[in-house]
Amino acid sequence: MTRLARRARVELERGWRATRIAWTATCVWLREKLPQWWDRALGRDPDARDYSAIHLRNAEQIFRTATTLRGLLLKVCQVVGTRSDVFPPEYVRTLARAQDRVPPRPFAVIRELVERELAKPLDAVFASFDPEPLASASLAQVHRARLVDGREVAVKVQYPDIEHIVRTDLASLRRICIVYERFDPQPLALLPLLDELQKHLALELDFRREVENAERVRALFRKNPDVVVPEIDFAHSTARVITMELVAGIKANDRAGLVAAGIELDEVVQGLTSLWNQMIMGLGFFHADPHPGNVLIQPGPRFVILDFGLAKQLPKGFGLGLFELMFSMMTENEAAMVRAFQELGFRTRTGDPEEMTDELFESIRKDPIVSVPSDFVLVARVFALLSGIAHTLGGRPNTLDSLGGRN
Amino acid sequence: MARLEWSREELLEDVPTDEPLFAGGVRCHGGFAGGRYVSPRTANRVPAIRSWQERLRSEGQPLVDVPRAFVPPHYPNYPQAKLLLQEGVRDPITRSLTLISIVEGFGARIRDLALPDLRREVVEDIAGTALAHLGGGLFEAHARDEAGWRDQGGHKQMWEAARDLGLAKPEIPDDVLLAMMGGNGRGERRRLFPELAPRLEESIAFLANVMIVEIFAEDVFEWAKALLGDPEVSAEPAGAPALVAHIQADESPHVEYLRTALSELRARTLRSADGKRELAGREVVDRILETQLRQIASTRPARERADVQGAIRLALDDTPAAAQLARRFESLDSGWTFPKPDDERLVLLAR
Fold it and tell me: CA-CA distance, A24 to A21, in Å (whole number)?
């Protein structure tokens, strides 16, 4: 294929993805809005309507689009699929399938990439390599394999064209956010969040960085026998392939599986909260993607942490600032909450802290936050994911206990 | 007899003040009336506690207390802390004052204590007691005092302000939170009375624990007032210890209502979970209190002391004449030793 033809194909693909995403967003928005407008026109209360069929139809369309296009949309679906405390159950049930039941790429594509990356035929490295993936997700899929020396391993392989896909999707989502914000003002500005997502996806796509992150988290918890980080096989890992120890466990949100294994659900919820609080507030370096497919539970409970693509070093003082924010929220101290927000770097449009004190969230609606500290976005995402797992397991973590308030 | 029944709103009511208390630029609870500091939420809480204590005394019942001889001194002690500050080793003191502020704030957890229905668990009537008012204002007042509420700072913010005044807004060490973390919420207290409903035993243990910690805090106040009031090392030798003194004054009702409630339980009879047995409150409260006291007065301070010593040694290693300074530091140790858990003198005192 000539360079020009390749370029044309890329542009066509990009156009097709953008159109499909825009079409899906428009359908979803209109399906939600049209009945509301209709009800209002007839003088009926739109909130009295049963939206479950609409939600289900929207969720199915989003899931179809995401699994067809993969990439960034799958990432968004993964987050929504864990937020049973925020999104309607139809969205959560449908989009939760994006966590690890994404249609995999053909083995031939994977094999070619692994051989190219390791610069060896597959048989020269692996005694066996399961063509069926253990899990397939938004940016990569994982295969079970056995090295020629007999070790059982998991091989994580990045999709070959993922960088281009992510770039296209970000542009599409940016356009959608601009339109949504114009027609349906959100309490929180969406574009700064998208900027952050863009920054972090670039980091996530470099597997060498992921290996470094895994080693760092392992070092942080070296004295904690309840935390398991799979050993990395450095000899067979590159920027697009990671070979690591195969570790078994039950998915963190598999309520039935955990109960069957005799694992206390409350201990799982409390343990997860405690581990991430330690990373974020105590150690200042954290795994930023604890969706249920990335945390396995073993009896004990012991916590197997997987996939370190998204990890972050926090700036000095951030942990204490976040602690102050959470603490002030839990102790109903609004003045301290506002001070903590400011110390963390939040700025409102007017910059007047008094505006935030009386009715904090109403004030934010009136005076939107225009500058979100970048680190806060990732931290908020972590707590959203953990909160989703806790909700699924029917537990409520005692955050003060996990912060050290236990006597 | 004095009034024994109080509403939640009455127990949370403030004494009117002429001037609010500001600490480090933060509006805090309490205030000044006629130039004197007035603790928050004490308009009715203090007289109420006094009347419940009077009732106990009139019934011939003692008030439980903790032997002062076993209150561990703060580590490092005042002369040691002063030496560190004079030598420019500030992190251990900053860390210590910051942890005190955080621990104080955690006191707000008391409002989350899920008390059992004491009217069912206790054989005798509990009307007109502190026990009957725990969830009806006493816990809430305690929580607000410790962590602040709405637009007012509490002890957490007052300790921070005292630290920032005395040490001229020091840089907070990065590891300050890690020192408190590490637990995952697991690990339960050993049951001493399996025949009691678990929640009842847990509640008594919690109350005993908080009371002991509050009494132990007395030494922390004296240490902080001495250190932050020392013009040789404090940037605000008047303002900083004054704030600590205000906190100390606010804490007095906490100790008193907890002593009262535990003493009231001690004077009554508790029902077993199956309702078939009755246990003397005295037997239950004394054993739980003694167990808690032995644990807190021995294991925990020793561990905390070891942690602080480690941090101080690390800090001293950074100074030029580390060995010499370490010797001077150790020579100032008070020599106080922690009681062993089996120390027979470590018994509950009821007076």
Answer: 5
ipTM: 0.81
Q: Do B177 and A323 touch (CB under 8 A)?
A: yes
Beta bridge partners of A140: A158
Give start and end residues of each alpha helix (H) in chain B.
8-11, 45-58, 78-86, 91-106, 118-121, 139-147, 155-166, 198-228, 239-266, 281-294, 300-317, 322-331
Q: What is the DSSP string of B321-339?
A: THHHHHHHHHHT-----PP
Residue B60, domain member (yes or no):
no
Contact criterion met (CB < 8 Å) for A323 and B26: no
Q: Is residue B86 part of a domain?
A: yes
Q: How far is B75 from B81, CA to CA, in rounded Å?
A: 8
Distance (Å, whole) CA B47 – CA B254: 13
Note the residue count of chain B: 351
In the structure encoding, which two tokens stand for residue A200, read together? 């972090």
- Looking at residue B339, what is its pLDDT? 66
In a domain, B62, yes or no: no
Same domain, A167 and A274: no
Instruction: Find, among A126, A183, A194, the residue nearest to A157 by Cα.
Output: A126
Q: What is the pLDDT of residue A407?
A: 38
Q: What does the alpha-carbon distance between residue B322 and residue A253 come to, in Å, rounded to a whole number?
A: 52
Distance CA(B9)–CA(B16), nearest Å, equals 15
Q: Which residue of B has its CA nearest to A356?
A: B151
Give the residue from chain B lying closest to A272, CA to CA.
B184
Residue A334 and residue A195 share a domain: no
- b vs e for A183-213, b when ≥16 Cβ sit within 10 Å of the residue's Cβ? eeeeeebeebbbebbbebbeebbebebbbeb
User: What sign does the CA torsion over B302, B303, B305, B310 have?
Assistant: positive
The CA distance from A325 to the nearest CA of chain B, in Å, is: 12
- Per the CB < 8 Å rule, is A274 touching B108? no
Domain that holds residue A289: 250-407
Residues A375, A315: contact at Cβ < 8 Å?
yes
Going by DSSP bridges, is the β-strand pair A311-313/A347-348 parallel, antiparallel, or unpaired? unpaired
Provide the shortest C-alpha distance from residue B102 to chain A (in Å).
9
Instruction: Choose the weakest-confidence range: A212-221, A356-365, B128-137, B177-186.
Output: A356-365
| Listed residue (A274, A247, A249, A275) closest to A261, CA to CA | A249
Confidence band (pLDDT; 50, 70, 90) for A367?
low
Whether the pLDDT of residue A365 is over 80: the answer is no
**Cβ contacts of B295 on chain A, cutoff 8 Å:** none
Residue B342: its H or E element: none
Suggest the residue from B163, B186, B206 to mutate for an interface test with chain A (most A CBs closer than 10 A): B186
Specify whether the CB–CB gap between A343 and B172 falls below 8 A: no
Strand runs labelled E in A190-340: 227-228, 241-245, 250-251, 285-287, 295-298, 302-305, 311-313
Q: What is the SS3 assignment for B175?
A: helix
Number of domains chain B contains? 1
CA distances from A95 to A19, A57, A92, A98 (A): 21, 12, 5, 6
Q: Does residue B80 belong to any structural domain of this protein?
A: yes
d(CA A81, CA A63): 10
State how far residue B109 is from chain A, nearest Cα, in angstroms.
8
Residue A277 CA: distances (Å) to CA of A283, A373, B183: 9, 19, 11
- Beta carbons of A407 and B174 less than 8 Å apart: no
